[in-house]
UniProtKB/TrEMBL annotation:
It comes from the Bacteria. Keywords: Membrane, Transmembrane, Transmembrane helix. The chain crosses the membrane at residues 6-24, 45-71, 86-104, 144-163, 175-200, 212-231. This is Cytochrome C biogenesis protein transmembrane region.
Length: 233
């Protein structure tokens, strides 16, 4: 693989791992519901993997919008001479904007998910640290609810990476991005869930890191963009 593919591969793996591992909502509900319902390890793992693929699917839908836009630009004759520089700059600009967005979200008290166990049931709700949560705002967690939560929570930083490869019309780069993002996301979710289920959750304290997830993801895309534009990756 050439330098560009390696840069995209490392970026995709980094973003998917950070996005998954830094968000307790990617594994905590599975740990809690598994223990409260006394599920087997196999049943817990199957639900985790299914929800993981649902999460990847929604991310890839957004990502392939980027691929489509890149391919459409590639059909414009005068764009042929500009596409290399344009795609690199687009990656860099998106990364910078996402980095700034992440900083703003980190400074603001962004609402985040919490999961509570009440008897044999698990409930999910959103709040920030300055507001009370009313009982009616809590939603009972079921396997279907968990699946829908993950389907409706895509990873946006994948979009510019796939857009970059779409502009270049490179199926090999797109395949590398899709496969690496999918495997890293699902395996990270599964690993965190199983570690937590078997009593190793105290090793991880990702709640503080979750606040800066957008910052780190934006920084990864920005670094990749800098490499494409200025370092010849």
């Amino acid at each position: 693989m050439d330098t560009t593919v390696w840069a995209l591969l490392i970026s995709a793996i980094s973003i998917s791992f950070i996005h998954t591992a830094s968000g307790p909502d990617h594994y905590l509900p599975f740990i809690v519901i598994s223990k409260s319902k006394k599920w087997s390890g196999m049943k817990t793992a199957i639900l985790t993997v299914v929800c993981g693929f649902g999460h990847v699917f929604s991310s890839l839908i957004l990502g392939f919008i980027g691929v489509f836009l890149g391919w459409q630009l590639n059909k414009i004759s005068w764009f042929q001479d500009l596409r290399g520089n344009f795609s690199g700059w687009a990656l860099l600009i998106f990364g910078g904007i996402y980095l700034i967005y992440g900083l703003v979200q980190a400074i603001r008290n962004k609402p985040h998910k919490h999961f509570d166990v009440m008897g044999d049931d698990v409930y999910v709700y959103e709040h920030n640290h300055t507001e009370m949560v009313m009982p009616q705002k809590r939603i009972k967690v079921t396997p279907l609810v968990l699946f829908m939560i993950f389907v409706m929570g895509p990873s946006e930083p994948l979009i510019p990476l796939l857009f970059y490869s779409g502009v270049k019309h490179s199926m090999s780069e797109i395949a590398v991005l899709v496969i690496s993002f999918t495997l890293t996301t699902v395996l990270t979710m599964l690993g965190m869930v199983l570690l937590g289920r078997y009593g190793y959750s105290t090793l991880f304290n990702t709640e503080k890191l979750e606040r800066y997830m957008g910052v780190v993801s934006g920084a990864v895309v920005t670094v990749c963009g800098i490499g494409m534009v200025f370092l010849g990756w």
